[in-house]
Write a structure and sequence with these properties.
Layout: E1 2-8, E2 10-13, E3 18-27, E4 33-39, E5 46-52, E6 58-60, E7 68-73, E8 77-82, E9 91-98, E10 112-113, E11 117-122
Parallel strand pairs: 2-11
Antiparallel strand pairs: 1-3, 3-8, 4-5, 4-9, 5-6, 7-8, 9-10, 9-11
Amino acid sequence: QVNLVESGGGSVQAGGSLRLSCQVARYTYGVRCMGWFRQVPGKKREGVAAVYFNGGSTYYADSVKGRFTISQENAKNTYLQMNELKPEDTATYYCVADQEGYCSGKIRTPAYWGQGTQVTVSS
């Protein structure tokens, strides 16, 4: 079992920046990756970014490349720096983690999810 605790989020005007943080608060076994998904009501969840602890590789959705940066610390904390925010970035953002390394959502849904934090970008 892995518990994820998120912080950050909020409201900002278009062009602004926000930083999301996530911590592995409790775990039975370590995780191989952490990442972020987002969801807008009525739309499919989207894998936004992921970082893999074995080798340090990262994944970004095309919609956020060049604007968002994911980082990690001690394989227990992950951060999502979001710059040049757009109104279409408005969503609930979820921290995710997986003990087998599936954090982008390309192959399967990550095993563990945080409670979600709202990001609202106004035009």
